[in-house]
């Protein structure tokens, strides 16, 4: 019964204890039956389990689930993400929207990073996400501002599959500005949360949800992260779980790259090209770039200004005498065509071509 799943998800017990209960009783229904019949193996938990049943709270959450058409899966159901079963602290109950089955059928890569992303971080995220999406690799992230948002949206734009793990109830859109992305993901991906519907995005929920982001993944990629970034929590959790971590190196002067540079120093794999990702995953890379393209006059003009030495965007504007909006469009197209790359601090440099 749905009431038992809701009750179990609201229990004030550690996930490890909940998992032990479910491994023994198979599902919350059986646990409640055993409790009602006085046949509880974990007798020290009897009062906690009984006192946790709150009709008003359970009915409130049930009403949200029914009205919002929220789906539920539990540890022993076939569509429960198989990777989560490997961990003692995985959530027993998950609330979700979308196609959760896809998490069990393809490779999953997490892309996370700073909410205060730079242009460099944005462009790197878009380039990585596009290649992964086109190569049928799922992208996992947290639907936060910044890097998470670009990872999800770029994946959808390229007809890929993406999963958002929330630090609040599945019915809460946070941040509000991601409402359109949230609605898109309900039909083109999956959104999931271990927190019961109605749970607000309290700060302490996000480190908790980060373990799910890493546990779902075959690889975790950190694009940008300050020294105190929550993304480093995800990276450290992944390393503890035996999951590979890659980080995008950045300027030593960039606050948003200090965390990435630190975890590379501490043993994370440096991400220097998209090929690095596929080599680590031991997956064939289908290159999606089109080498037959020609540069239009605007692209050719800017391309000729950029060489092997980094040049700042302000200098490009002065030399090229071009509108800033048009310049950003041209620079982005040149990056998509793998002609140039953006370095931290709005510097651009020509890409080295493969021999």
TrEMBL record:
Protein name stated in the entry: DNA-protecting protein DprA
UniProt cross-references to Gene3D superfamilies, sorted A to Z: 3.40.50.450, Winged helix-like DNA-binding domain superfamily/Winged helix DNA-binding domain
Residue stretches making up the Smf/DprA SLOG domain: 71-281
Family in the record: Belongs to the DprA/Smf family.
Domain DprA winged helix: 294-346
Alphabetical list of InterPro entries matching this protein: DprA, DprA_WH, DrpA_SLOG, WH-like_DNA-bd_sf
Source organism: Clostridium rhizosphaerae
Coiled-coil stretches: none
